[in-house]
Design brief:
2 copies of one chain form a homodimer. The first copy, chain A, is built from 19 helices and 14 strands. In chain A, helix 6 links the parallel strand 5 and strand 6 (159-165). Chain A has helices at residues 45-52, 55-62, 72-80, 91-97, 118-130, 144-155, 166-171, 173-181, 195-203, 211-224, 237-242, 244-256, 272-278, 282-288, 304-307, 350-357, 368-382, 388-403, 422-428; strands spanning 22-24, 67-69, 87-89, 102-107, 135-140, 159-165, 185-189, 228-230, 263-267, 293-299, 309-314, 323-328, 361-366, 409-414. Chain A folds into 2 domains: 51-67 and 117-233, Rossmann fold, CATH 3.40.50.1100; 75-114 and 238-433, Rossmann fold, CATH 3.40.50. Chain A is an alpha/beta fold and 434 residues long. Chains A and B meet through helix 4, helix 6, helix 8, helix 17 and helix 19 of A and helix 4, helix 6, helix 8, helix 17 and helix 19 of B.
């Protein structure tokens, strides 16, 4: 049997009634207005972004409604990939910690590409198909977004081109193989494929590659290929909107259990699983104040929320992107090599920055070693291997539960599974081959 | 945080009403009586097996009731790991094949250890805990059973020792790491750890290791360590019984969809996912005859059902096991190196042999290359990477659907996922690193 490269798009099944009907618009829920992106002096980056992005997502970002309908075709695919995902209680972990707290885990790791990224990839592939686009280009850090795009592109018969932060791409031959099997074209960033990539290579800086170099290259590629559209898997308001299915489902699932959350926790890279989990609870946050805690867990290798500055910066080191306001370490920050590629970026999301600068969002940063130990503990107790990024949220949940003196309800998002990130565990935990 | 080796056993949640209340006893459903195991001349293997095995599973094998209650604690753990597993319709695959057939997939790959093996591992770990046993020893081929045992042992605070067919263990560093992280002790078979292992090593045959060498060593180890109990993850009647949750759930799920299956398909190694899927449909098979097809899909590297003989043989090459009747290639058969370790054995299950010799079960064998191409096709169309073993069932489902001239309902068991078996894909599919 020969495997054809161009299967027809799949007819979708009917969505379950349990799949949310709408996404939430995060913007009206934020405690302050979102500082808009702007051009650096002499740059026309915002115009470029407008030209290379999908119309539908730009319309979504201009929308001021409280909610946006999820197209039926997207809902059907959500159902098909297993939405609503499970909300499980981590009883073994609670027992181990001897905590009075209850720990709930929102299990985005159970999606077929192994992470929450699929929620936005399906939506954006649908919009691309609706607009007659045939090829998508994007960047990916850890590879979860690239994997999701490769999958979603196939659902709609589209081509996908993925610029992958080199340091992560080289760590993950298994995930890379799956992207290739899905038919995606993969380039390690910095690459010689784009003007920006060549400039970065010539500069001798950022040679390991990061999400930032990959963003710069994906935009550069789209700029030079007018038939291609650039999509992004994090950071931007429409992505955060798509990820609100996580929180909407979580809220319904908690209500069915008679639970009201006291702490909501997510790992934070670009911020979309965090915003997606927390958005439906922001009205409660406004009411409850400090009695509802929101925690972003980041990597000590890229400590933007804990050590960065709340200011305008480019999201890529070369300055291709518009200036956007976020907590940033500066675009020249040399990110160390690490196995938590999904959190390895010098800046972040404006919306998450608004939550942080308004005092609504607490932040914690963890070192790589404690992250992988957390993953091993979760594997032993709960039976699944979390992605290194997700371990940050799990570690924060453990710390919160361990400190609890009375019953409280902690909810953490397990943003992805670690089966395709095993190399980080192998490198960080001793004696695994014994 | 230091990860302790001895966490307390986890309290289990309440099982969902959708988790079956009972396992089915396969024996009364078979078209002929099960030929019992017996000793080779001068051997006391059956007595040894009686001594080293758990009491509860031997009682289950003597039971003549039509069903056996699933202990509440086991049901709770079944619920906790995600039972009932999903029954998904492979619409993209149907569309690709332009078939009038409907293809349903029973998704055991979604369990946290990535395969159906967990269904019996949880049950046997529970029984061991009930009997005051602290250490379990077992064998594994592809590693899925070993992974499940390592997981289930932790649920009940037990130690696990895994003899792993060397050829597979060496192929799978990621799965091996996870077993180690779970706290299992892993030995590549043949090993110097046991009398049998040393004999095999000295013989110069079976040096690659197989499920058979690992069975021989696990039994040998238990024989020399009276405090340890030997458990098995396939082949034996009680294992097939535990796996009937697969078929019981499938039957309920099909009924809820108003579907009556016309073809049931499973990959066949030891035969437990096959028997587990098909047992609840055997009464229908007796009524419907040829209009309900049962298909076992095996590896052309170990073509027992298609080319073997229905006779008594040992399940291990050294003759440690009792003689049991099954389709066998002979215990001296030199199995080639392959990436489908779960199907790589010279003999099989007596119960499956009864189905085959009675004419109820059809069999097909597939070459490794076409299996991995099938896996890639399924990844592209359905979004998940099946285990190489499961690809055999999927390939048979594709062949059945492609040949269908009118609507029919095909049900295949996806016994496991392939994320920890990526090496086989890498070795078999060209240009994956491009």
């Amino acid at each position: 049997m020969s495997v054809q490269l161009t299967e027809p798009a799949a007819p979708a099944p009917t969505a379950s009634a349990e799949v949310p009907q709408v996404w939430l618009n995060l913007l009206p829920l934020l405690p302050a207005e979102l500082p808009p992106p702007r051009n650096a002096e002499g740059s026309s980056a915002t115009e470029l972004m407008s030209r290379i992005r999908l119309k539908a997502v730009q319309e979504q970002e201009r929308c001021t409604d409280r909610s946006l309908p999820i197209p039926e075709d997207v809902r059907s695919h959500y159902a098909d990939v297993g939405r609503p995902t499970r909300l499980t209680r981590a009883r073994a972990l609670e027992n181990y910690l001897a905590t009075p707290a209850r720990i709930y885990l929102k299990r985005e790791d159970l999606l077929p590409t192994g992470s929450f990224k699929l929620n936005s990839a399906i939506a954006q592939a649908y919009f691309a198909w609706s607009e007659g686009v045939h090829t998508l280009v994007t960047e990916t850090g850890a590879g979860q977004w690239g994997h999701a795009v490769a999958y979603a592109a196939r659902l709609y018969g589209l081509n996908s081109i993925i610029f992958w932060a080199g340091v992560s791409a080289r760590q993950k031959p298994a995930r890379r193989a799956i992207l290739s099997m899905l038919g995606a074209t993969v380039h390690e960033s910095p690459s010689a494929q784009t003007v920006v990539g060549r400039s970065i290579l010539e500069s001798g800086k950022h040679g390991l590659g990061s999400l930032g170099t990959a963003i710069g290259e994906a935009i550069s590629y789209a700029s030079d290929h007018p038939e291609v559209r650039y999509i992004s898997g994090s950071n931007l308001p429409h992505v955060l909107t798509h990820q609100t299915v996580i929180g909407l489902e979580t809220r319904s699932q908690l209500e069915a259990l008679g639970e009201e959350p006291d702490v909501l926790i997510a790992a934070v890279g670009g911020g979309s699983n965090l915003a997606g989990l927390m958005a439906p609870f922001l009205e409660r946050k406004a009411e409850r104040g400090a009695s509802l805690r929101l925690i972003g867990a980041e990597s000590a290798a890229a400590p933007r929320l804990t050590r960065g500055e709340w200011r305008y910066d480019h999201a890529d080191p070369y300055g291709v992107t518009p200036l956007s306001k976020s907590y940033t370490l500066g675009r020249d920050y040399e990110l160390p090599e690490t196995h938590v590629g999904g959190l390895r970026q010098h800046s972040g999301s404006t919306a998450v920055g608004v939550l942080r600068s308004s005092g609504w969002l607490d932040a914690v940063a963890y070192e790589e070693q404690e992250i992988f130990e957390t993953g091993q503990l979760v594997l032993r107790l709960e039976g699944f291997l979390p992605a290194p990024e997700s371990c940050h949220a799990l570690r924060a949940a453990i710390d919160e539960a361990a400190a609890a003196k009375e019953p409280r309800t902690i909810v953490a998002c397990v943003s992805g599974n670690g089966l395709l990130d095993i190399e980080g565990y192998l490198a960080s935990l001793p004696n695994l081959s014994s």
